[in-house]
Structure to design on (433 residues):
């Protein structure tokens, strides 16, 4: 019996290709990464075929499964200004310190009444659990007797309206005419782009409801918005599976 | 050792026999690290910005719902139940159940839309009124709105449900359970 010859193989592997690929993917992910905004609550949005993307200038009203209402302003630099307005409205400016305004500016969203807000900001409470530990009611009040959500929306509109007026000052009349149109129909491509950019600059009120949220809370929020003459509401939705053909489906049904 | 032979006079064929140093670098730690970072970024990244769907709410003053033949009322109840009726008089309306799946809602809307558009009394207007009970889930609202966008129902309104309509749903459930 002869010895079994085990062929000697070099155990080292050429990892250059793998390394290349790994770094390529790494670069891609680093460049495209946007950190998840710190949200105090988990909300599972319902799905739809809409493929419109959320823009920068957004005020987001979040409704969770238990019907608690949170509010968030996407643009960090607008948050402080908004809080100052609302604090003034409730004559509470004295209860907020400069540090509180800074703390508020760093928050994606919050969900307490304005009376409890200084306490929450001073204690740096972020989550509903932390709110509860401070013996604070979670959720922004929106009953007709104490409609704080309405006040926040009112001043958010005001803050963005101010910005809009400032932006319009430098524009010439032709562009003003373009952006005043309700729809982009009949515009050429360059003008259409101007119109669309302007649309992105307008404040959008976005309702981010959990799919299991009860309709009554949603209805209350919509009522508040209607009272504030906000008729155009955007609902946050997940893109449905295979909904890339949303537009195509529309065409199909038209026939 | 390693010398750069700048002169070409020797000719390329004759090389100095130098001690071979392996050019291979052990890349294992580098790859490890790279994959670790990839995993991290893949898990923390949010690929797509949230999608939004526009809904235009009517003015609070309320509008007309049009001729009863030309409009259909959808009622939403808890546990994903959807009903519809088509009548001017709520107390005499016969409620019918509609399966809450998007496909079924779409089928229904397409069918109703076609019927209405063929009806001469409607002047090519098809109106859908959506009403939900307080404990209906938000998902159903979005489903219906989404299907209306797909089918192209441009005139719709979300309205408050009336007592008669709640009664109608209760009666329907009572009969169904018998």
């Amino acid at each position: 019996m002869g010895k079994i010859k085990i062929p000697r193989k070099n155990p080292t592997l050429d990892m250059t290709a793998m390394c290349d690929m790994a770094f390529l993917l790494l670069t891609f992910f680093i460049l495209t990464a946007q950190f998840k905004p710190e949200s105090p609550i988990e909300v599972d949005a319902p799905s739809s075929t809409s493929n419109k993307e959320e823009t920068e200038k957004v005020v987001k009203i979040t409704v969770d499964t238990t019907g608690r209402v949170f509010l968030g302003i996407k643009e960090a630099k607008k948050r402080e200004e908004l809080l100052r307005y609302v604090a003034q409205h409730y004559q509470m400016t004295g209860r907020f310190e400069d540090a509180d305004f800074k703390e508020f500016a760093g928050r994606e969203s919050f969900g307490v009444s304005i009376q409890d807000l200084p306490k929450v900001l001073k204690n740096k409470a972020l989550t509903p659990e932390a709110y509860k530990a401070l013996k604070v009611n979670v959720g922004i009040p929106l009953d007709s007797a104490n409609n704080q959500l309405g006040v926040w929306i009112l001043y958010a509109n005001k803050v963005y309206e101010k910005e809009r007026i400032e932006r319009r000052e430098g524009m010439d009349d032709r562009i003003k005419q373009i952006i005043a149109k309700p729809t982009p129909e009949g515009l050429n491509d360059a003008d259409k782009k101007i119109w669309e950019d302007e649309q992105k600059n307008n404040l959008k009120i976005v309702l981010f409801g959990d799919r299991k949220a009860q309709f009554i809370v949603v209805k209350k929020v919509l009522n508040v918005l209607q009272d504030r003459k906000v008729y155009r509401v955007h609902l946050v939705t997940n893109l449905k599976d295979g909904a890339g053909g949303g537009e195509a489906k529309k065409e199909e049904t038209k026939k | 050792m390693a010398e750069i032979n700048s002169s070409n006079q020797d000719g390329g064929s004759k090389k100095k026999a130098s001690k071979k140093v392996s050019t291979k670098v052990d890349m294992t730690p580098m790859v490890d690290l790279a994959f670790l970072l990839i995993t991290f970024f893949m898990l923390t990244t949010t690929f797509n910005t949230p999608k939004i769907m526009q809904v235009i709410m009517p003015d609070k003053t309320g509008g007309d719902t049009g001729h009863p033949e030309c409009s259909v009322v959808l009622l939403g109840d808890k546990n994903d139940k959807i009903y519809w009726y088509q009548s001017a008089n709520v107390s005499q309306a016969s409620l019918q159940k509609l399966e809450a799946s998007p496909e079924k809602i779409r089928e229904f809307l397409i069918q109703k839309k076609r019927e209405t558009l063929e009806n001469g009394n409607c002047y090519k207007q098809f109106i859908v009124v959506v009403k939900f009970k307080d404990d209906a889930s938000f998902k159903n609202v979005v489903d219906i709105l989404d299907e209306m966008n797909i089918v192209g129902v441009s005139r719709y309104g979300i309205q408050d449900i009336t007592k008669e309509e709640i009664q109608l749903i209760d009666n329907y459930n009572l009969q169904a359970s018998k």
About this structure: The first helix of chain A runs from residue 16 to 32. The first strand of chain A starts at residue 47 and ends at 48.
